[in-house]
Amino acid sequence: MSLSIIILAAGKGTRMKSKLPKVLHKICGYEMIYYSIREAKKLTNDIEVVLYHEADLIKEAVSKYFDDIEFVMQDLENYPGTGGAVMNCKPKNEKVLILNADMPLVEAEELKGFEEIDADIVMSVIELDNPSGYGRVVIKDGEVKKIVEEKDATEEEKKIKTVNAGVYLIKKELLEKFLPKLNNDNKQKEYYLTDIIELAKKEGYKIAPLFVKEEHFKGVNSKYDLANAEILMQNRIKKRLMLNGVIMRLPDTIYIEEGVEFEGECIIENGVSIYKGSKIVNSHIKTNTVIEDSEIVNSSVGPLARIRPGSKIVDTHIGNFVEVKKSTLKGVKAGHLSYLGDSEIDEGTNIGAGTITCNYDGIRKYKTIIGKNVFVGSDTQIVAPVKIEDDVLIAAGTTVNRDVPKGSLAISRLGMKTVSGFFYKFFSKKEGD
Ligand code: UD1
Ligand code: CA
Q1: What is the pLDDT at residue 1?
Q2: Which of 135, 142, 207 is nearest to 169 (CA)?
Q3: Which site in 69, 104, 229, 349 is 20 to 30 Å from 251, CA atoms measured?
Q4: 52: DSSP letter
Q5: b/e 163-191 (16+ beta carbons within 10 angstroms → b)
Q6: For the CA atoms of 62, 66, 68, 69, what is the dihedral angle to 10 degrees?
Q7: What 8-state DSSP symbol labels residue 130?
């Protein structure tokens, strides 16, 4: 492989107005930097990520997903700026692709295009109606002459709508030659990587602009940009799923995180959110349901249900206002208003409205096990740990605080009494008034 990749992630991200470093803000369930590294790994094994601000936090986040990434510390005190960021890198290969970690929408497939162009430097450019915030690309006679940062641009240069998207393919020898020649003689007193373009141009090197799509090369600098980047990525995720056969009602209202898997015939109604780690197989997820890190197979869930992490729902019907957490339900009906946590519930069992597994005693969590063909009456509290065996009938309103043997009835209820005429006495009324 002749390619090395450097990912810039040392900047403070001041415009995000957040304590969290910019590249750790999430899009569709993953930190922005995750996407840059994932795509880079499709192209090479030689990847260096440049860090400074909150370096330890970023390393920790990256190591959740990747274990073979090189981190390079920028000398940001003495050499601030994107040029300074590259100074401590030691790419192994002849060609170096430089990416910004704040560009989560870039895909490896598009980056391959940079290598197909015969030039000493290939730089990504976008045409924008509103170029504000970006470095402007001064093109003369069809060739890139230089890049001017907005803060350093003249009024005339600010009108240029061709901007630097921030991705470059540079020959390693050019980096080695020109990095030491950068200075910080500009408004921000930073060492700009982009100044290499002008230096190289003056020495006759060939610099080619590569026009790229805004929706893929959009940088995230503010929380507004973050939200817009997430919309673009959502559209990409949902389009791919629909083309693969998932039915979505009003897809603009649906939120599906990166990596959620679908199989068979699935219908997702409006307002549904499905978080990463989930897998949906031949199921119907109804309006405004939330599914987190769970597996749903041959089931219908919702409307307005919440399936929390670690659940497996198979051949089951879950209705409105049912919350399930870390539970396995197989062939179960839980139609209304229940909380089923840390439980295992088996085939043919019906969970009545208002059933609550009391899984937490204030210190620890306990399991509830319910067997086959159990009829759990409405308003039942099941105080875990407890095991209800097969073929059991639990009367409405029962507090189950002991194991229930196979085939039995469980009932705990104060006897009901009626007091005749009480109503009329209490309200000082006469019957028929
Ligand atoms: C940069 C470009 C600009 C381009 C824009 C595209 C320069 C001088 N300007 O500007 O022409 O239009 O990207 O998005 O390169 N970083 C470091 N160390 C630093 C400073 C930044 O690693 O000292 C990293 C940041 O973490 C970020 C990336 O470099 O991932 C870009 O930095 P940012 O400050 O966003 O650059 P822009 O001002 O947007
Ligand atoms: Ca930027």
Answers
A1: 54
A2: 207
A3: 104
A4: B
A5: bbbbbbbbbbebbeebbeebebeeeeebb
A6: -30
A7: S
CA distances to 34, 40, 345 from 71, rounded to whole Å, are: 14, 14, 47
Query: By the 8 A CB rule, do 98 and 193 touch?
Result: yes
Cβ contact 335:317 at 8 Å:
yes
Pocket of ligand 1, candidates 17, 100, 158, 194: which has the most ligand atoms within 8 Å of its Cβ, to mutate? 100
Residues with CB under 6 A from ligand 1: 8-11, 50, 74, 76, 80-82, 84-85, 100-102, 134-135, 147, 149, 163-166, 192-194, 219, 221
Q: Is there a catalytic annotation at residue 336?
A: yes
| Tokens 């929706």, residue located | 215
CA 125 to centroid of ligand 2, rounded, Å: 14
**Residues lower than pLDDT 70 in the chain:** 1
Q: What's the CA-to-centroid distance between 58 and ligand 2, angstroms?
A: 17
Nearest in space to 370 (alpha carbons), one of 384, 349, 354, 352: 349
Token pair listed for 278 = 């989930």
Residue 186 tokens read as 């500009």
Kindly list the distances between the CA atom of residue 404 and the CA atoms of 34, 48, 103, 171, in Å, as whole numbers in the listed order.
49, 60, 57, 74
Q: What is the pLDDT of residue 433?
A: 78
Closest-CA residue, ligand 1 atom 11, reads 135
**DSSP class of residue 57?**
H
The owner of tokens 């492989």 is 1
Chain segment 308-332, per-residue pLDDT in tens: 999 999 999 999 999 999 999 999 9
In order of their start, the domains of the chain are: 3-217 (3.90.550.10), 223-410 (2.160.10.10)
Predicted local distance difference test score (pLDDT) of residue 133: 87
Q: Which residue, by CA, sits nearest to atom 23 of ligand 1?
A: 81
Instruction: Identify the residue whose tokens are 């989560």.
Output: 104
Cα 363 to Cα 211: distance, rounded to the nearest angstrom? 59
pLDDT per residue as tens digits for the range 80-100: 999 999 999 999 999 999 999
